[in-house]
From TrEMBL:
PANTHER family: DNA-BINDING TRANSCRIPTIONAL ACTIVATOR DEVR_DOSR (PTHR44688). Gene3D superfamilies: PAS domain, Winged helix-like DNA-binding domain superfamily/Winged helix DNA-binding domain. InterPro entries: Sig_transdc_resp-reg_C-effctor, Tscrpt_reg_LuxR_C, WH-like_DNA-bd_sf. Residues 156-221 form the HTH luxR-type domain. Keywords: DNA-binding, Transcription, Transcription regulation. This is LuxR family transcriptional regulator. One of its GO terms (biological process) is regulation of DNA-templated transcription.
Amino acid sequence: MTTEQQRMQDCIAAIASTADFHPGILIVHHIPSTTVAYMSRRGLQLLGITAEELQALGADYHQRFFNPEDAAEYAPKLWALVAQNDFEQVISFFQQVRTLESPDWSLYLSAARLLLRGDDGLPLLLLSNSCAIDPSSHIPLKVQRLVDENNFLRQHAATFASLTGREREVLRLLALGHSAPEIAKVLFISAQTAETHRRNIRQKLGAESAFELGQFARAFDLI
């Protein structure tokens, strides 16, 4: 066993010694291989898998248990954390996980930080702590709205990008409930020009209602 392997083994043993006392599920990720080096007992039970089976899955662990739509949101944050090699930084993110408790996705809040460097000075292990969000609380409803909004943003980013700067200004005012004559006064343009912008915006976004216009305005931080 190399010195690096021994340090890694000792680090994981230290985490495992207190893992069952933590409120969440502790996971140690081996960064170079993108595999799970350790998961606390509660996590293994929820997934219905042994530690040996989990390690044998390798990188396929993520595809098997996690919603891939979420990964598009948090994976860049994780890789940025690794690239910065900053052991003081902590990132947090939401994940939807498939567990034995429910056939549907269960929502978890996870926090992660780097745990150990290799002999080359590069990040070797990453530690995450994942806590289930109680579905009986009001938080999941708010979180789901954020998830839906992020999904909407990703799906319509190219469409929104087709709007000009002026059209985005008009969209913001439309979402706030202003009429074309009111928008004309605010932007110092004619009512006819304001109406033309309104018509073009609806056509470009494929929006038929004020609610749909509001969706775009909220998702892209216009209001």
